[in-house]
Every structure is written in structure tokens, then in C-alpha cells.
């Protein structure tokens, strides 16, 4: 079975009602990025940060995967699929995808502020001051904030070198290091880019651009690949 790697971004979850990471004013849901998505913001006001992610988590509990997520999951019938996502939601999991690399962390997990290898599931939606790990230190959102290392990027890059099919969906290809993953895709691979606004990318004869939203565009990719595999 051939390998398919899907690089997904905020656009695939927007159709499920999940707010994209930032708007044109540099805000995320009305908050300055530096206040809720940096280590410095956490140091200044951990209660604000915890409350911010609690609200995201509460919204995420009711969010449902859309046609784009479902198409990613259905591709597992025809390929060995790895989803490399920049999203922190769990909609790929809800859709049924089995092999997911979360580059920027996971909303429904927390981790120790003393030992970052201690990671826990968040039951429900609340993570508050006083919630501690087994070492007694405060738990923080398991999110990769601006200024922090992206620990899963090396694994993602290795997976991309093995792709026979590489699909980009819902991302502008402007956020690094994720945007650089396409450079690890080898010459034989077929590349699909799904986005209503074609990203500013170098010309590459391997790339098929599908100028659609994530849901309808991924359904087109799915149908094309199903036919190609038969």
C-alpha cells in the first residue's frame, strides 16, 4: 500500500466552526497572540491563558468533523495515511483518522510545567490553576506556543520523505516550520494543494491545485485517488 501524507491547517477546521488561529489584526478570538500563545503570556497571567483555552475546549467538545476530515479518514482504505496537522483540535480523530502528528500540540491534553514529557488527557473542558501533575507542578495547555520548539517536526519531515502522495489542505503554506515540509517530499510523489486561495508557492509540475474549500476540495482529491488506485 502506498503512503499518503496530508498536511492540514486551520482552513479544514473552519468549516466545522473552529476559529482560525488569527485574524488580520493579529488577534485570536479577541485576544492578542502574545497574551495567550507565548511562554511570556503564560508567565504574566496563567489564569487568563487557562481561561482562554478552556473556552476553546468547551467549543471544541461540540464541534463535528466535516467532509474534509472525513475524506482524509476515508483515504485510509486506499493508502497508508499519515495526517500531519497544524491544528490543535481533535476533529481528525473524531473523523476516524488513525495516524496523526500534531505539530502544534493538542487542545484536549495538558502537560507538566516541571517535566514536559508528562502529558495528560483533559477530561471535559476545564484546566484551572491548582490542577497539578504527579510531581505537584501546575499543568499547562499542551500547546506549542510562539517562541517554543516544535518537537514533532523531525518526525513529520521523515514521514514526508516516504510520501507517494502529498496533500496540502487548509493552510497558506506561510507558517514555518510546517510550510517547509513540502521540501522533504521526493521527486516521484504526486502533490495536491486544496485551497480557495492558491498559496504563493514555487512552480512545480507535480502539483495539482484544487481551488475549493477544504470539504469539497478533499472530496475531489478522494474521488480522483480512488479511481487512480483501481
Q: Would you kindly provide a brief summary of this structure?
A:
The protein has 8 helices and 11 strands. It is an alpha/beta fold.
Describe this structure in words.
With 230 residues, this protein is of the alpha/beta class. The protein is 30% helix and 21% strand. The chain is built from 8 helices and 11 strands. It has helices spanning 10-14, 33-36, 39-44, 46-62, 67-74, 91-95, 153-160, 214-229; strands spanning 3-8, 27-28, 31-32, 80-85, 100-102, 105-112, 119-121, 139-143, 165-169, 190-194, 207-210. A 6-stranded parallel beta sheet has the order 5-4-1-9-10-11, with helices on both faces. A 3-stranded antiparallel beta sheet has the order 7-6-8, with helices on one face. A two-stranded antiparallel sheet has the order 2-3. Strand 6 (105-112) and strand 7 form a beta hairpin. The longest helix is centred in the N-terminal third of the chain and has 17 residues, at 46-62. The relative contact order is 0.19.
| Distance from first to last alpha carbon | 13 Å
Estimated helix fraction: 25-40%
Using the CA coordinates, give the radius of gyration: 18 Å
Low-confidence sequence ranges:
none
Strand content: 15-25%
**What order do the SSEs take from the amino end to the carboxyl end, as H and E?**
EHEEHHHHEHEEEEHEEEH
Sketch the major β-sheet.
Answer: 6 strands, parallel
Rounded mean pLDDT score: 92
- Shape type: elongated
Chain oligomer state: single chain
Number of helices: 8
Provide the structure class.
Answer: alpha/beta
Amino acid at each position: 500500500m502506498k503512503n499518503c501524507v496530508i498536511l492540514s491547517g486551520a482552513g479544514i477546521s473552519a468549516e466545522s466552526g473552529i476559529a482560525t488561529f488569527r485574524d488580520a489584526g493579529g488577534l485570536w478570538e479577541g485576544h492578542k497572540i502574545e497574551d495567550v500563545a507565548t511562554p511570556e503570556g503564560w508567565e504574566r497571567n496563567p489564569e487568563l491563558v487557562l481561561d482562554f483555552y478552556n473556552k476553546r475546549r468547551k467549543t471544541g467538545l461540540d464541534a463535528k468533523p466535516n467532509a474534509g476530515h472525513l475524506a482524509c479518514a476515508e483515504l485510509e482504505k486506499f493508502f497508508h495515511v499519515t495526517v500531519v496537522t497544524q491544528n490543535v483540535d481533535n476533529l481528525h480523530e473524531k473523523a476516524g483518522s488513525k495516524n496523526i502528528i500534531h505539530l502544534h500540540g493538542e487542545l484536549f491534553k495538558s502537560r507538566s510545567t516541571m517535566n514536559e514529557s508528562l502529558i495528560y488527557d483533559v477530561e471535559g473542558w476545564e484546566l484551572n490553576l491548582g490542577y497539578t501533575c504527579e510531581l505537584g507542578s501546575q499543568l499547562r495547555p499542551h500547546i506549542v506556543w510562539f517562541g517554543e520548539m516544535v518537537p514533532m517536526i523531525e518526525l513529520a519531515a521523515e514521514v514526508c520523505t516516504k510520501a507517494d502522495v502529498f496533500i496540502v489542505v487548509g493552510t497558506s503554506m506561510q507558517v514555518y516550520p510546517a510550510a517547509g515540509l513540502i521540501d522533504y517530499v521526493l521527486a516521484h510523489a504526486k502533490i495536491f494543494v486544496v485551497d480557495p486561495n492558491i498559496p504563493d508557492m514555487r512552480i512545480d509540475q507535480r502539483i495539482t491545485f484544487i481551488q475549493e474549500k477544504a470539504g469539497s476540495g478533499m472530496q475531489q482529491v478522494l474521488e480522483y485517488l480512488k479511481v487512480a488506485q483501481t
